[in-house]
Design goal:
Order of helices and strands of chain C: HHHHHHHHHHHH
Structural class of chain C: mainly alpha
Largest sheet of chain C: none
Helix content of chain C: over 70%
Oligomer: heterotetramer
Structural class of chain A: mainly alpha
Number of helices of chain A: 18
Chains: A mainly alpha, B mainly alpha, C mainly alpha, D mainly alpha
Distance between the termini of chain A: 28 Å
Number of strands of chain A: 2
Distance between the termini of chain C: 73 Å
Radius of gyration of chain A: 21 Å
Largest interface: B-C, 81 and 98 residues
Helix content of chain A: over 70%
Number of helices of chain C: 12
Largest sheet of chain A: 2 strands, antiparallel
Shape of chain C: globular
Chain lengths: 480, 97, 319, 495
């Protein structure tokens, strides 16, 4: 048996999930090691992509359009690597955060199936296969959402499930129209297709389905409650990684399908702007820490779509890079932030923002981690979030699209405002009765989120190599 | 009038009804039913697309895709229904307290 | 043009649309579910008309049969305990209903226009499949697509089932052991009679799948019906000690499928590329194991919760 | 002497690497913390001395790597950078001593010194930034590192002040980001080059260039407390004394003033800026700020707030000197960068001692403090007289050059402005001195008759006061700030 690393990135987590499910007692060991092994497969794949630009495998030896091919280029490997790295650190965080044996037992198989699904999305080149993959992701993600078992989590999980099914069905109907028009389902077929009514309908259906899954305003209604009520490691995975899968398919499709016209691009940017403003207002009003963090995800998704639309239709050839950087930055920083929020909640005992400063326990390191993650999410230098925002504004300025610059700046100020609500609660001491021990509440569990937050900051210094890596294999060139 | 066109439009009408139901229904179970309708509508579309004027055999690929779609949908339905049952139990217990 | 079936097609199409509307509008949920089952069977009939017997079989067995059973079970559960006080949903204002209907109507019209404008009997995989069939190892094209050409999709589809059963077990934890809807004695006798027949039909469907309509999913669904009946009649009651074997049964199909896909790779072959001489054997092996997993998984999805030991409820002693 | 091309990086790292260690130290490891603090501060002074020597010998330091295609993270050590780095390093050493004494038994020392050290790193980075992009990175880092210091006390009042501080400075930073982007899009570079990089743009798109000037100077003006962006500074006075000393003398306001210098001299180039007609409005704005700050200072009873408004006024001398577009005024501006730092830090540390030792925080309660704390008040008085511009103290030297520069630039009003400002300085400083020295404390004056403050609090203001004396008295000696200033002006005016 010898297999290419691409297939392994799918099979390693799959076998890991199976093993973790049938051997529940060993799940906490199998889980992290499976993620680590997946990471190793991604590293092997990255080496191949560095050497060859893009790698393709036709599964079963059947070349598309009959068969299904996996394809890895710079962008997909970047997503795989981000997923594996964030996933590994969240896994380490989960070892401590999941105290309940039952939660532990189910977390690992669900999370590994989720990983399988996401890796499948990043390597997929066939739109029906992508439909199946987003369903794998959806079911595993809903399972993770309700892991805490509270009524609020279950309600949110059910809403999430409805949205997921509906999004997937819209996507599936789109797939039907694509087949109806061009008789094939692979990306190459899409690129070669002539524009037509059925294809426009297909594009519209698939894009709306994906926007629902990725929770772009005003289709975000399901996200805040789902992300805020899950247990911390699940929230980190859902917010940091899961919404990115649909976003990634959106990026790919938007560039492969017949070019979207200027109005569509503007519409997407406008929805992004709506997300930034509305999400910002809600984050300012949020009462609970995790709810605030969840609303900030709505904002960041909006920002990513603004980056996509920053320079109009002509700019799409470059704009996807800004969006990709923001996707990576948000994945890392948001996972760190949710884990840190979970740690704070664990130590303090609640996460009501207004009362955080009444606590004599100040989990310093978790708070510091939260602040670092906030720096990247606000987009302050030299974080990766800053690089993403820089690219966004640079492209918009160069193209003369001042409105996107203005929205981004307003969004930035709002994010300062809502994150400083939290930071102020961390640093206020005059409402505490008992003596405050600042170095209380450290735990080894802080290591994972801190590492994530520090990478979100320092990766900004390595933005040039990251940018040249995601361009490998011309993800958005003429041929897939 | 070919069966293709008739059932194509049938499928789209069912999809539309399912869409409206899933957006508008209040009852949790009814929303699941509506989504299920929409999924049948989507399947109609693929099967219609695979149809060829007899005696030509239909394209088998969309058929395989629909079978996959049906299994995926029953999985999603089962999870949604489990959530509904569990929520009902929890809410009933909350009320009892 | 004057196909005698046109009228039949028209009537069936209208009936399907009407049933769909009725499912959404009828007040009683039980009636809605029954209408839904009828709707599913009519749809399956339409698909037979569209020369898709495999799909019709799958829809009838899984999409309608298993789903209907799941829906009824859930309804039964909801009616067992009183609805939450004040849970009655607020009446939706008429303008909202109309706006929603208008919105979805517009989408439907747009899609219908796109459908009418699309090429009829357009391009497809027909030629490619015909050309590749001799190398597929099986004689039935749908099976060839499912387990060879697009085996990756199918593997992921079983993964979806696996994810579903894990999620369901996870969700319905610690439920009090409410009695499942037990059937009467008549049904029990009926079940004893019918069960062996169903097993035979399921196995036959599986076996025939290589050449004729049928295959793992339909076979699995039919076998799952066995499980459903066993559960309903209490001939089989899941116990905590059965959990281990159940877990293995759930993953059997996925694991074997993935293992075969991976093990055949090497020597110039990629994953899922079965050597031609062993293709039929391997595909049958995968189908058989996947059928077992599907059957057990569907039955478990119906049963719902993980069979865990329940602490005796305190309130029952109080009473 | 061994050659070390990475020297600027080492200077940055002495504080950047010390910060995480200081954060991690347990609260009670006081002596280890003090050791690291002082050790690193002294190491930095040594390294800066070495760097100055090498630069004066003509060695060019230039460290860079690409963060984005074409956009570099760049550190350089030109004479202007050295001027600011040297000021930071020396004053930091002194302030560190003072802080150790001030916070001896206070809470949250690990956090305080961690952010304190990050502040140095940011200031050094601002000084040595080789392009506006790098400058922006450290400028924002400075904001973030000072915020926890401003709200160090953790009271509602401190948090309110902190919020205002954060809103002003981060909004300013955002506008600076916009300006940096604009520069990058317009000029294709953000490098600091003597003579500027915008000659062509100014010719082809003068309106865009003027807008860019307004955006950049406006953004930097927030930290440089140009009216109307000055309001945060008096409010931020809620911070502990060492922090106030630091914000005013070296870190925040100076970062703004220094940035204006870089932008005018090395982004636009003084000729281009003049040709765009942007220098005179800037000079007028600086003049308005000078008068406004002084007038507001008169009515403040809180000592620190009076000093804060004085800073608003005094820092604008630097902006004024830059905007006058005369090499002589530039000498005054650069010299004032140093001199104002020395004078203001002295006064803030002295004010801190009054509060710590005697509980005196208001001007109206300063009666007789001179006798209670003679050393501290001597230092304070010296610095105040220097501020007013009494020859031969440091403040006189900068004002002298500014006045000459005003004449040189044909702006006679500058003389009047400086005289007026000096008069106002006298109006708000002399009453303080009068109360301190010539009034009796009264009966129930000070709880401890002989207040005990340790040498760590007493020595720093005296040291800086001596430096004020030296900088003024020996202004023409080699290696004096003034001499170094002339060296820089020769470069910026490309003479």
């Amino acid at each position: 048996m010898q297999t290419d690393p691409m297939t392994l990135t799918l099979f390693v987590p799959l076998f890991g999930a199976i093993a973790a499910f049938v051997l529940p007692r060993a799940a906490s060991v199998i889980g992290p090691f499976s993620v680590l092994a997946t990471g190793a497969a991604v590293a092997l794949l990255a080496r191949e992509v560095l050497a060859a630009g893009a790698v393709t495998v036709s599964l079963g030896g059947w070349a598309p359009p009959l068969g299904i091919a996996l394809r890895a280029d710079g962008l997909s490997v970047a997503m795989l690597a981000m997923t594996a790295a964030v996933g590994l650190l969240v896994s380490l965080g989960a070892l401590d955060a999941l105290r309940d044996a039952r939660q532990r037992q189910y977390f690992w198989p669900l999370w590994l199936l989720l990983l399988t699904g996401m890796n499948g999305v990043y390597l997929g080149t066939d739109i029906f296969n992508l439909y199946v993959m987003i369903e794998v992701i959806a079911l595993a993600a809903v399972g993770l959402t309700v892991l805490s078992g509270t009524t609020a989590a279950l309600r949110a999980g059910l809403e999430y499930m409805y949205a997921s099914i509906l999004g997937a069905l819209l996507f599936l109907t789109g797939v039907g129209f694509v087949y109806l028009q061009i008789g094939r389902l692979d990306f190459a077929g899409l690129i070669a297709a002539e524009p037509s009514g059925a294809l426009s309908a297909a594009l519209a259906l698939m894009l709306v389905g994906l926007l629902l899954k990725t929770a772009l305003f005003p289709l975000h209604f399901w996200l805040p409650a789902a992300h805020a009520n899950a247990t911390a490691p699940a929230s980190a995975l859902l917010s940091g990684l899961v919404v990115k899968a649909a976003l990634y398919i959106f990026l790919r499709l938007a560039t492969y399908m017949p070019p979207p016209d200027e109005m569509l691009v503007t519409l997407i940017g406008t929805l992004g702007a709506g997300a930034v403003i509305w999400g910002g207002i809600q984050a300012l009003r949020a009462e609970r820490l995790k709810m605030l963090v969840a609303w900030s995800t709505v904002v960041q998704i909006g920002l990513i779509f603004i980056a996509f639309a920053r320079a109009g239709q002509i700019g799409l050839a470059e704009s996807w890079k800004a969006a990709a950087v923001l996707i990576l930055a948000h994945g890392i920083a948001k996972a760190a932030m949710f884990l840190a929020a979970g740690r704070i909640k664990d130590e303090v005992g609640h996460d009501v923002i207004r009362d955080l400063d009444r606590s004599a326990i100040r989990p310093t390191l978790a708070q510091f981690t939260f602040a670092l993650a906030a720096i990247s999410l606000i987009g302050l230098p030299p974080s990766l979030g800053f690089i993403g925002k820089w690219s966004l504004m640079e492209g918009a300025l160069a193209a003369g699209y001042w409105h996107w610059v203005a929205v981004t700046m307003v969004g930035t100020l709002m994010s300062v405002a809502y994150f400083s609500r939290v930071l102020a609660a961390f640093l206020r001491f005059d409402r505490v009765r008992a003596p405050v021990g600042e170095h209380q509440g450290w735990a080894l569990a802080d290591a994972a989120p801190l590492t994530l937050a520090l990478s979100a900051i320092t990766l900004g210094l390595m933005a040039a190599p990251i940018l040249s890596f995601i361009e490998l294999g011309y993800p958005f060139g003429a041929t897939p | 009038m070919t069966p293709e066109l008739i059932y194509g439009l049938t499928g789209i009408a069912v999809f539309g009804a399912g869409l409206a139901g899933s957006l508008g229904a209040q009852d949790r179970l009814r929303r699941v039913l509506a989504l299920k309708l929409a999924s049948v509508g989507a399947c109609f579309l693929l099967i219609v697309a695979a149809w060829r004027e007899p005696p030509a055999a239909p394209d088998p690929v969309p058929h395989a895709l629909v079978i996959t779609g049906i299994v995926v949908m029953v999985s999603a339905t089962a999870v949604a229904l489990a959530l509904i049952r569990r929520l009902h139990t929890l809410e009933a217990e909350d009320d009892a307290d | 043009m004057t196909d005698p079936f046109v009228l039949f097609d028209l009537l069936l199409g209208l009936a399907i649309v009407a049933l769909a509307g009725a499912v959404l509008c009828v007040r009683d949920l039980f009636a809605a579910i029954v209408l839904f089952v009828v709707f599913g069977l009519f749809s399956a009939l339409a698909w037979v008309r569209l020369s898709a017997p495999d799909v019709a079989l799958a829809e009838a067995a899984i999409g309608t049969g298993v789903t209907g059973a799941l829906l009824l079970k859930t309804l039964h559960h909801l009616r067992q305990s009183p609805a939450k006080a004040g849970a009655a949903p607020l009446p939706v204002p008429m303008p909202v209903i109309w706006a929603n209907a208008a919105f979805c109507g517009l989408i439907t019209l747009g899609l219908a226009a796109a459908l009418v404008g699309a090429p009829a009997g357009g391009p497809g995989f027909d030629a490619l499949v015909a050309e590749a069939m001799p190398q597929s190892g099986v004689a039935h094209p749908v099976t060839a697509v499912l387990l060879n050409f697009r085996a990756y999709d199918t593997l992921m589809e079983v993964v979806v089932l696996l994810a579903a059963v894990i999620a369901v077990w996870q969700i319905e934890r610690g439920l009090s052991d409410a009695p499942s809807p037990a059937l009467g004695e008549v049904w029990e006798g009926f079940a004893r009679l019918v069960l062996p027949a169903i097993v035979v039909v399921g196995t036959y469907l599986l076996w025939k799948g290589a050449e004729a309509p049928g295959g793992a999913f339909q076979g699995g669904a039919v076998l799952a019906a066995v499980g459903l009946l066993l559960l309903l009649t209490r001939l089989y009651v899941p116990r905590p000690s059965h959990r281990g074997i159940a877990r293995w049964a759930f993953v059997l199909g996925t694991g074997a499928f993935a293992a075969v896909a991976l093990l055949v790779a090497g020597g110039g072959r990629v994953a899922f590329q079965y050597p031609l001489e062993h293709a039929k054997t391997l595909i049958l092996l995968i189908e058989a194991l996947v059928t077992i997993s599907i059957a057990v998984t569907l039955a478990a999805l119906f049963h719902g919760r993980e069979p865990v030991a329940q602490p005796a409820r305190r309130d029952s002693h109080d009473a | 002497m061994i050659d070390a091309p990475l020297l600027p990086l080492f200077i940055l790292l002495t504080s950047l690497l010390a910060a995480p260690v200081l954060f991690a130290l347990p609260e009670r490891a006081a002596s280890l913390r003090t050791g690291i603090n002082l050790g690193m501060a002294m190491l930095k002074v040594g390294l800066v001395a070495w760097l100055s020597l090498k630069v004066s010998e003509g060695v060019v330091y230039d460290l860079r790597f690409a963060m984005l295609p074409g956009l570099e993270f760049k550190l350089q050590a030109d004479p202007l950078a050295i001027l600011f780095v040297a000021l930071s390093a020396v004053l930091w050493l002194i302030t560190t001593v003072y802080s150790v004494g001030y916070l001896e038994r206070g809470p949250h020392r690990a956090r305080f010194f961690g952010f304190f050290t990050l502040c140095v790193a940011a200031t050094v980075g601002i000084a040595m930034a080789g392009n506006l992009f790098t400058f922006l990175i450290f400028y924002e880092l400075l904001t973030l590192a000072t915020y926890p210091l401003v709200i160090h006390r953790g009271t509602a009042e401190a948090l309110r002040a902190g919020r205002i501080y954060l809103i002003y400075t981060l909004a300013g930073g955002l506008v600076l980001l916009l300006g940096t982007l604009g520069l990058w899009v317009l000029a294709g570079t953000t490098d600091f080059v003597p003579g500027g990089v915008l000659d062509e743009v100014a010719e082809s798109r003068p309106l865009a260039a003027m807008l860019l000037f307004a955006v950049l100077v406006g953004a930097l003006g927030v930290k440089a407390t140009l009216v109307p962006f000055h309001a945060w500074l008096p409010i931020a006075m809620v911070a502990p004394a060492p922090v106030s000393a630091l914000l005013h003398a070296v870190a925040v306001v100076k970062a703004g003033a220094f940035g204006i210098m870089r932008v005018v001299y090395e982004v636009f180039g003084i000729e281009t800026a003049q040709a765009l007609g942007m220098t005179m409005p800037l000079a007028v704005l600086a003049g308005v700020t000078i008068i406004y700050g002084s007038i507001r200072a008169i009515t403040q009873d809180d000592i620190k707030k009076r000093l804060a408004f004085s800073t608003v006024s005094q820092v604008s001398y630097i902006t004024l000197g830059v905007a006058l577009a005369s090499p002589i005024a530039a000498v005054g501006a650069l010299a004032h960068l140093i001199h104002q730092g020395l004078m203001k830090i002295t006064m803030f540390m002295a004010a801190g001692n009054l509060a710590e030792g005697l509980g005196v925080k208001k001007v109206s309660r300063m009666d007789g403090v001179g006798r209670a704390m003679p050393g501290t008040m001597l230092a304070f008085s010296l610095a105040a007289l220097a501020m007013i511009g009494l020859p031969p103290l440091a403040g006189f030297v900068s004002k002298w050059y500014l006045a000459q520069g005003g004449l040189d630039a044909g702006a006679g009003w500058v003389i009047a402005l400086l005289l007026g400002s000096s008069l106002l300085n006298a109006i708000y400083f002399l009453p303080m001195l009068h109360r301190a020295w010539f009034r009796d404390a009264g009966a129930a004056a000070f709880a401890p008759a002989r207040p005990r403050i340790g040498w760590m609090l007493a020595a720093p203001p005296v040291t800086t006061a001596v430096l004020v004396l030296v900088a003024g008295g020996f202004a023409n000696a080699p290696f004096s700030p003034l001499e170094w200033t002339r060296f820089i002006v020769a470069i910026e005016y490309r003479e």
